[in-house]
Amino acid sequence: MIHNEENTDEIGNNHIATSANTPLRNDAFDITDDEKINLIKKDVEHILTTLGMDLTDDSLKGTPNRVAKMFVKEIFGGLHPNKKPSASTFENKYKYGEMLVEKNIVVYSTCEHHLLPIYGRAHIAYISNGTVVGLSKMNRIVEYYAKRPQVQERLTIQIVKELQSVLNTEDVACIIDAKHMCVNSRGIKDIDSSTVTAEYGGKFQDENVKREFLEFIKLDTRF
Known about the structure:
Elements: H1 5-13, H2 33-50, H3 63-75, E1 89-91, E2 99-111, E3 117-127, E4 131-133, H4 135-146, E5 149-150, H5 152-167, E6 172-180, H6 181-184, E7 195-200, H7 207-217
Parallel strand pairs: 2-5
Antiparallel strand pairs: 1-4, 2-3, 3-6, 6-7
Helix pairs in contact: 2-3, 4-5
């Protein structure tokens, strides 16, 4: 594929993911968070000044530092591997062998194409092969992978792969239904549309198991 400016714009405007892994450079963590904040602060100052904003105004003078801290500490905090949640597993002593579903997990992420919010709900299910994971750990895994520049397809895949690794089973599924502000507030400006993505592993690829999961979360079976 030829990567020119037109092609790059097309990828971004059509929300196309180029990899199932977050595209990070090898030197991504060679500098500290504080160093990153100082550098980003200067970049935000440059952007606002270029736009014609008066950064001596009391309302704006703290904006570059606030944005820089937000990027590093909050909305992109999931980039740093040190912040990956530990997910302890436990023996399934009660021998629960049916599907476990955690639904309506709140998703807040950021579109990597326009750096605008993605927000919605994730629904996760797994079938134990002898181990279980604490319920809140599933929420934390969603939060960790959401707190980075993302595309929804990649986020869905990353959540499933992480839980498959934690639980040592392929029998994991995830569906995300989310709104993208890059669609809702710019471009086509369709305020009602949302995007649904799904990743089914192991037994969830069976149509009957998939249908049971969808019935639990009450989503249209075409997904």
